[in-house]
Structures are given as C-alpha cells and as structure tokens.
Amino acid sequence: MGHDDLLAASYVAGTLAAAEVESFEAHLVQCDGCWAAVAQNRRGRALGESLHEPAPPDLRDRVRMQVEGLPSERRFSARHQRRGRAAFLVLLALVAGGVLVVPIVRDPGADRDPEAVAAVVRAADRRLAPGSVMAGGQRVALLQGVVDGRLVTVGRSDEPFPMPADGHAMGDEPGSPWAAERGTVNVVCLSKPYNLIVVGALPAERLVRWAANLDLGPVVSR
Amino acid sequence: MTDEPFLEATLPHLDAVWSIARRMASDAAGAEDLVQETYARAWRGFAGQGVGEVRAWLVAICLNVCRSELRRAMRLPRVAADLDAAGDRAAGCDVAGAAIAALERDAVVRALADLPEHHRRAVVLVDVGGLTAREAAEVERVPRGTILARVHRGRRQLAALVEREGLHRGS
C-alpha cells in the first residue's frame, strides 16, 4: 500500500491525530487520487455495513438451549424461576386451546443423555419447535405434533441418535426402536425411515406407532 | 462452570457472529449451524476469557469452525427442506416491497464474494461484523496496520465491483 493509501485508510478509520487530520485534509483538496480513494473507501464501507443483519430471533433461544444442555453444573436461579412462571403461562394457553401438555419433571437420567437426545427432550420441555439445533456435532431439526390431544416433540437428524445408558430396545430386530423414560414423558427413537427422537406423555408404543407413519419428505443434499 | 456468565458475556455479540457467519456460510441454515457450533466450542473454552476480548474471541472461533466443521457438514446429507425452518425464514424475509433492495443486496453479496480472500475477510470482520480494526487484527493475527490496509483495499474493490455491476445492468 502506498503512502497516500495508508494515510487515506487511517483517515477514514479515524485514527489520525488532529494535526495529521488537518494536514491530510489540506492535501485532499489538492489531490484527486486521495480524494477518490477516500470517497471509494467510504462507499465500500457503507456497502459492507449494509450486510450487517440481526440474528434470527429464535436463534438466541436455540443457542441458549444448546449451551444449557452442555455438561455443566446446574444453577437454579431467579432466571429458572422466571422460566417456571413463563412455562406455566404457556401451559395455560395450550390447555385452553384443547391440547393437553404434560410438563417434563426433571429426571436425573436426562443429564446423562447423549447431547442430541437431550436437546430434543429440552425442546419438548420448552415447546421449542420448529427450527433446528446443533447438539453433539449433530444437526437436529425440530417439529411438533399433537397425538391423542397431547403435544409431541420430534427431532429428526441425518445421523443416528445414540441410545442413552438407560434406554431399552423395543424389539429383537437390529434397528428396532428404543425407549427411555424421562420424568413424566417417554422418549422413543426410530431409525427407519428417518432418524427420529419422539418425546411425549404417551405410552412408548403409541409414540412409535405414530412416528412410523410420519411422512416427512425425502432427505435432500445440502 | 455455570452457563449464565458465559451467556451474559457472549449473547450480546450474537448479531456480530451471525452477520459474519452469514457471509461465510453458503446459506442461512449453514450460518445457523456455524453459529451454534461456535457457541458450543466457545462454552468449552470460556474459563479465564476476559470479557473485553469476547467478541474477537468468538469471531475467531467462528472462522475456525467455518474452516473445519462446516466443510465436514457440507458433505453430509441434509434433513428435508420441509423441516428446514431457517431456510423458510430467510425466504420469508423478502417481501415484495423490498425487491429492489434485495437485488442491490445480492449485488453487494456477489461483489464481496469476488474480493481476494484477505480483503474479503477484513471487510467482513470490520464492516459486516462491526469489529474494530484492533479486534480484527487480533482475529487475523496480523498487525493493525495490515488490517487497515486490507479493509481499505477491500472497500475500494467492493465499491468498484458494485458500481461496475450497476453500470452493466443499466447499460
């Protein structure tokens, strides 16, 4: 970069000392090259700044949920109490709408779940869907459904979900669904035709039967 | 470690990380993956991080994730588009009244992509992400003067490319 360019860059960046600014501005009015360089720099800056954009509103929630799901100490603070109140209001609204929502009572086993499984259980706990989360290096798309009047949360991934230590296979065949209990809800996992985790306050067999009939469209390449 | 200090220190910088991720990933869904992986890695390394340097630190992680994890993820098949809320959201943002603005924005995005790598990264960090020259220098591990030079050249090239495209479209 030439001497004038460095001055122009520093001038636009606002990092020149007052005396340097005065000197450079005196030079600017006499030098077409530096004048053009400063003007073009400013136009480019405005173009670049036009691409700054706020994050999608729910990304903040999903980042928060993901971080809170990573192995850590738990702190039951005022924040959790506020959440409890908010969850109660959501519950009230859903019940008023005719959908029975059963809140998940914290289960000690949930803290040992593989991250991708835990992410879906947390999403169910918070009614956070649709959208997607990254958990354990695995991208999980979330959606909700209503089965027998109860809200059910589904997580779908291109990669198989690991089975928690306390999970149990629901059949003898390889690739059979597995199930685990988490407080007041059941968690089931299917690998055909999609890799799914289904969480709901229904018998595991009912969740599997419902999920097996889901038509979620084909897997497409990125 | 509890997660609240981490979230309080890092979530205010989500827009900056998102803006940069958006320009580094090929689409909105990829940018969301990038941001989430950035925060997951950042959480693991948060202990001892000074609050004053959090933004530059997060962005450096984001660029590292972009170089490594995203390449891996790009090779994997992806869940069906009907569940891809991020893509839907991005599409839904473009209302008819903003069509011209969107066209201009596309032109800027294309021009930015055409910049030499170092210049593009400097413009993305400073102008798109809003980092200071000092923070960008820290991320890129180069002297601050080098960042200033790259930003200067990148901006001028960006302006020239957009002007040229406008002239071509208008001719």
Number of strands of chain A: 8
Distance between the termini of chain A: 40 Å
Overall form of chain B: globular
Biggest pleated sheet of chain B: none
Unreliable parts of chain B: 74-94
Give the count of structural domains of chain B.
2
Q: How much helicity do the residues of chain A have?
A: 40-55%
Q: Largest interface, with Cβ-Cβ < 8 Å? A: A-B, 62 and 70 residues
Morphology of chain A? rod-shaped
Q: Which sequence of SSEs, written as H and E, runs from N to C of chain B?
A: HHHHEHHHHH
CATH domain class name of the largest domain in chain B: Mainly Alpha
Round the mean pLDDT of chain A to the nearest integer and report it: 78
Radius of gyration of chain A: 27 Å
Describe the largest sheet of chain A: 7 strands, antiparallel
Order of the strands making up the biggest sheet of chain A:
1-2-3-7-6-5-4
Q: How would the blueprint of this fold be written?
A:
The complex is a heterodimer of chains A (222) and B (171).
Chain A: H1 3-13, H2 18-28, H3 32-49, H4 57-69, H5 78-96, H6 115-126, E1 131-135, E2 138-147, E3 150-157, E4 168-169, E5 178-182, E6 185-190, E7 195-200, H7 204-212, E8 220-221
Antiparallel strand pairs in A: 1-2, 2-3, 3-7, 4-5, 5-6, 6-7
Helix pairs in contact in A: 1-3
Chain B: H1 3-10, H2 14-24, H3 28-44, H4 54-74, E1 77-78, H5 85-92, H6 99-114, H7 117-128, H8 133-140, H9 144-170
Helix pairs in contact in B: 2-3, 2-4, 3-4, 4-8, 6-9, 7-9, 8-9
